[in-house]
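FAQ

Q: What does a record look like?
A: Structure on top, sequence underneath. For example:
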């Protein structure tokens, strides 16, 4: 199975014109939040509608900028995985949107214990589980600010260390587009799609690979 991973679109779908072919070739697209600029629900509908023209298999969560009402919109569009577990091609996709608390008081922030519990209770077969979350785990290549400070969630790192899921897909920290591992779990933050960042995850029987490209 091959997945495309995009995040932090912020309403700008210009990169669909240069990256659309790569997205179309994948089995599914995972969207790790911040679909809109400032929680405009109509903008979310437009963005998802355009991406559906490329690939109809979409698993999406809202980010901290999208607002909690975005969950209902994504549900109506048939792409929501926030607070859910969806089986696809022998794997389970589970998700939790929003972000941990920020200094900026953005529209959709959650205590990290809520995110931790939302995900933990849905993990049944870890080696077959793909987690989609806006916030990255703590102290990886995917959660460093431009000043080099790790701002990811310690509870999410604990979840990964305890449950050992197949992979953890995230976004949020724009400057930390990267792949990493916690144990055998692949961690991937593709960086902002509006700047051309796309992640790719290739899953085979006994192997998982991740990479990031710019389009």
């Amino acid at each position: 199975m091959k997945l495309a991973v995009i995040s932090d679109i912020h309403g700008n779908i210009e990169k669909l014109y240069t990256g659309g072919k790569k997205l179309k070739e994948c089995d599914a697209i995972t969207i790790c939040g911040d679909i809109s600029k400032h929680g405009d629900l109509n903008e979310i509908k437009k963005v998802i509608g355009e991406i559906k023209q490329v690939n109809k298999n979409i698993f999406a969560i809202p980010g901290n900028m999208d607002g909690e009402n975005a969950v209902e919109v994504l549900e109506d569009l048939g792409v929501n995985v926030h607070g859910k577990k969806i089986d696809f091609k022998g794997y389970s996709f589970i998700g939790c949107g929003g972000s941990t608390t920020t200094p900026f008081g953005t529209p959709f922030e959650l205590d990290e214990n809520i995110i931790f519990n939302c995900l933990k209770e849905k993990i049944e077969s870890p080696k077959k589980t793909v987690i989609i979350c806006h916030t990255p785990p703590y102290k990886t290549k995917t959660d460093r600010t431009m000043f080099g400070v790790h701002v990811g969630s310690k509870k999410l790192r604990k979840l990964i260390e305890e449950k050992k899921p197949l992979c953890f897909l995230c976004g949020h920290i724009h400057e930390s587009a990267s792949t990493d591992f916690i144990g055998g779990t692949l961690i991937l933050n593709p960086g902002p799609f509006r700047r051309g960042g796309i992640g790719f995850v290739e899953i085979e029987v006994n192997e998982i690979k991740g990479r990031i490209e710019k389009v």
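Q: Is there anything notable about this one?
A: The first strand starts at residue 2 and ends at 6.
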